[in-house]
Amino acid sequence: MKPEGKLMIIGGAVNKGSFTETDYDQNIEKNLNFFERGILRKIINESKNKNDSTIEIITTASQIPQIVGPEYKKAFEFLGAKNVNILNIETREQANSDAIVARANQADVVLFTGGDQLRLTSILGGTRFHEAILLKYQETDFLYAGTSAGAAAASENMIYQGSSGEALLKGEIKTTQGLGFIDNVIVDTHFVQRGRIGRLFQAVVNNPRTLGIGLGEDTGLFIKNDVMTAVGSGLVILVDGRFIKDTNLTKINLGDPVSIDNLVVHVMSMNDEFDLKTKELTINNSQYNSIPVA
Fold first, then answer.
1. Is the pLDDT of residue 13 over 80?
2. What is the C-alpha to C-alpha distance for residues 187 and 154, in angstroms, rounded to an integer?
3. Is residue 190 among the annotated active site residues?
4. Which terminus of the chain has a lower count of CB atoms within 10 Å, N or C?
């Protein structure tokens, strides 16, 4: 069954300007790249009740929730959102409580901040809070947003460990189950800036049915009705393993380099679309789409 809800997964380091600068209001135009590019603005616009939507900022993954939560709250409120709350769930007991579940049921949007995705899934996975937002995503006009760890954890399976420099050595990346909002993809974040292409290559060669998604910083994918649209200022890298012809994966020892033949890579930028059903990319500003076919 196709979910009624929507996803916004973001690569991290959302350029929301520094809300601690004393000249923030005076130099607002210098601090609003991400507003102009539309990541948080789009979250509000796509939410059920727009500026009146109830937004819960989930800071569970972060080691500095007292800083991260208020930053996002101020950013959303600057854009006109009227009902923004911060929810720092630190234990599974909290995540199973009536009070937390009630807040989940009232929310139109949840935004999961960055941090440690394993912390996020180990605290929230399988709890009443998790089940409540999954059900809302399946059955209602609900929006799950996640940046960095929150994006990585959105899929059924997620990468939680693996150095960038050694990621294309067999066994160098570790995966586990995510929060399960989207199937048959695996997401990596801070992708371009931290050189994580090898991590995604190995995740895909391990199971070529999985579409690898690499999100650059200040860049996201808005996902609705099986169509992914790029938003933000950077790049999205897609790795499609369906056409792999050969690999040495099962013939080498742990720690040995992995060879892959015919891995397909796509690069998306703002407003490009990728159809998860047909696996076709549409480039928004194509240099060829106005040229007639001979």
1. no
2. 8
3. yes
4. C
